[in-house]
Write a structure and sequence with these properties.
This protein has two domains: 2-130 and 295-300, Roll (Diaminopimelate Epimerase, Chain A, domain 1); 134-282, Diaminopimelate Epimerase, Chain A, domain 1 (Roll). It has five helices and 15 strands. It has helices at 29-39, 41-48, 87-99, 176-192, 236-248, and strands spanning 2-9, 12-19, 58-63, 72-77, 106-111, 114-120, 125-129, 134-144, 148-156, 160-164, 205-210, 219-224, 258-261, 267-274, 284-300. The longest helix has 17 residues, at 176-192.
């Protein structure tokens, strides 16, 4: 029996595994995540893939932390594998911890890519200080079959992103299918041409931007996630990558708030702070605020004789 708490952050689902998860042996979360990837992929699939989950579902497995100042560790994962960081999922985690009576004060959380902080500001509103973010390359040109030359920035926000401002696409919910096809072709072309993040990190998120019709909102985005499913929220790691690019272009300073809308119209607030001795044009510490709501508190059952007990794998 696996107890899970489901929530959504701006429309994007998170399923936190509270109990019944595999024993990953302890140690740093990055080490536990590698064991999770290597030995327990069946568990990942059972939790987030059909018939218990669906392609947009993001899982969050609570695990021991190796850091004394952290309250817990967490491994985020989706329909195809573990993720680096997930800000919408951390917002969902914050609301979940509050629901469980464990959400008091500011908490440090150990993730696969570093330590983040969360604070439950209200019953459904959470602030997340993400990992340090930066732009690796500006105006990278790729010749995408069927599209032509596409220009974007490569940036890190806890995952690797290719951020595109000029794309001739209508960034609107009614255009999801075309946005998905366009973004998937870009991602495939990046991979085919060996274009990566630092240390060969796969660029597995594609982010398109446009102006927003919503009052007081700076930008609207469409984000394609690793499993070829789009993010219903404005994507917290994607917003972090965007903030890093804005800072690199001297378009955002400390103390300014950036309002980023997602494809469904939900909005994240983002701000930046300086990181150690780095100029703010080279590296930033993003803080993202968003809202999440609990949608279910349930037990998952994996019956031994169920031929699809470990999920439908695409």
């Amino acid at each position: 029996m696996i107890r899970v708490i489901d929530s959504h952050t701006g429309g994007e689902p998170t399923r936190v595994v509270v109990s019944g998860g595999p024993d990953l042996g302890g140690g740093p979360v990055a080490q536990q995540c590698e064991r999770f990837r290597r030995e327990f992929d069946w568990f990942r699939s059972a939790v987030v893939n059909e018939p218990r989950g669906w392609d947009a579902m993001v899982g969050a497995l609570l695990c021991p932390t190796s850091e004394p100042e952290c309250s817990t560790g967490v491994i985020f994962f989706n329909n195809v594998g573990p993720l680096g960081m997930c800000v919408h999922g951390t917002i969902g985690l914050g609301v979940t911890l509050g629901y469980l009576g464990q959400g008091t004060g500011r908490q440090r959380i150990e993730t696969n890519v570093g330590i983040v902080e969360l604070e439950l500001l209200e019953s459904n509103r959470v602030e997340v200080q993400n990992v340090a973010s930066y732009r690796l390359a500006k105006d990278v040109e790729v010749d995408v079959p069927g599209i032509g030359i596409v220009i974007g920035d490569i940036a890190w926000g806890g995952n690797w992103f290719f951020l595109i401002n000029d794309h001739n696409q209508h960034v609107h919910y009614e255009n999801i299918e075309d946005l998905t096809d366009y973004s998937w072709k870009v991602r495939q072309t990046l991979a085919a041409n060996g274009i990566t993040g630092s240390d060969g990190g796969e660029i597995d998120h594609i982010e398109l931007f446009s102006t927003s019709e919503q009052e007081g909102v700076n930008s609207k985005n469409f984000v394609l996630c690793p499993g070829r499913e789009y993010d219903r929220s404005p994507c917290g790691t994607g917003t972090s990558a965007k903030l890093a690019c804005l800072a690199a272009d001297s378009k955002l300073s400390e103390g300014q708030t950036w309002h980023q809308a997602g494809i469904t119209g939900s909005v994240f607030e983002g701000e930046i702070a300086k990181v150690d001795d780095y100029p703010i044009s080279e590296r930033v510490m993003p803080t993202i605020r968003g809202t999440a709501y609990i949608t279910a508190d349930s037990q998952l059952v994996l019956q031994e004789d169920d031929p699809l007990r470990t999920g439908i794998k695409g």
